[in-house]
Amino acid sequence: MAAKKLDAIIFGATGFTGKYTVLEAVSVLKGLNWGIAGRSQEKLQSVLKEMSAKSKTDLSQTPIIIADVNNEASLIEMAKRCRIVVNTAGPYRFFGENVVKACIEAGAHHVDVSGEPQYMETMQLKYNDRARERGVYVISACGFDSIPADMGVVFIEKNFDGVINSVENFVHLGVKGGTKGLGGAALNTGTWESAIHAIANRSESIAIRRKLFPDRLPKFHPALKSRAPLSIAEDVGKVILPFPETDRSVVMRSQRYLYETEKKRPIQMQAYMTYPSRLVAGVVVFFASIIGIMAQFSFGRQLLLKYPSFFSGGMASRDGPSEARMERSFFSMTMKASGWPKSQKLAESTDQYTSPPSKTLTVKITGPNPGYGSTCVALLSTAKTILNESDKMPSTGGVLPPGAAFSKTSLISELEKHEHGIKYEIVANK
Questions:
Q1: Domain assignment of residue 236, yes or no
Q2: What's the pLDDT tens digit per position in 198-233?
Q3: Pfam family example for this protein (predicted)?
Q4: Which of 14, 181, 231, 355 is 20 to 30 Å from 261 by CA-CA measure?
């Protein structure tokens, strides 16, 4: 007799992110039937034992599915066993496409935590039509990259009461009480490897986007200009640097989708990291410059991947962050939107506003442990939302960014329910 179909399977459960996704699944997927998958029965059983102890929950009866990312037949069989695959097996540049393809052919939805624009846009270019034919949702960027930002724009639009021209996002990463005694690592090497390959192949994005989006979005005024690196943003009182492109590229994909399907005016967006001083920001620029140059060459990438702790200034390690560091890590985003109130009219001849934006809304988004706490909760919450609210999502399926997929669902409310979830709040409305 065929095994009962599961609601969800966590694939790559023996990896660093996978293990903590299993831990968070105890609460987020409560009431659903879920299992775990990977190559090694022994390692998967070890994960269940470890996470049983951490969660004080007996996970010994959790279904185990053996699947190898390089074995297409095993991936299809895994996908046939469930309604949605929660894919934590990165770097997705190397391991993501086979899982996406298997899910589409098996008719199972797919979510992952990729922050790799080239992978995400390639999947949309290659598989969007087939996913729509099969009624399957394939949604990436379902972790810290880029649920807080993309759903933050959705939250802002629902509360703005007018027309938004632009959003600026200021991101702060911190550790409560400082990092003394916690060890320096904030990332494991899987996340580090994904970042290195994304940097090395950044130029690919231009060619992919030209194929994916042959028609440019219309220009709206006033244009949102980038702020100068190392300048001080008065809105947050911090020194800023441009945030790596994932959040902005994901938000703009969502905006394009909503423009093309609902004729909604696209929102311009810029994102920045914040730092307490120009000295600290300067050190970041120094390391980022070295990494950026080395990542362009094969030998340089080999060194970066072989010695992650050295080249990251101790921020990445093979062991990943300590439990103590993860417990005390947090993020906050300050998103400031500018636009016009409903009472302000468009110029009939140009379909544009003739006066500058006169209304602002500032939103704060916060969460703990962005790498492996909030990320895992966000990933599982997107899976749960697809299972429970597909009637509120685009009816055709497809390869979509989160904002486009979940704009009409209760995903934000789901994120706010959990201990390691993400909170959205309005802090100023002028």
A1: yes
A2: 888 877 888 899 999 999 888 888 999 999 999 999
A3: Sacchrp_dh_NADP
A4: 355
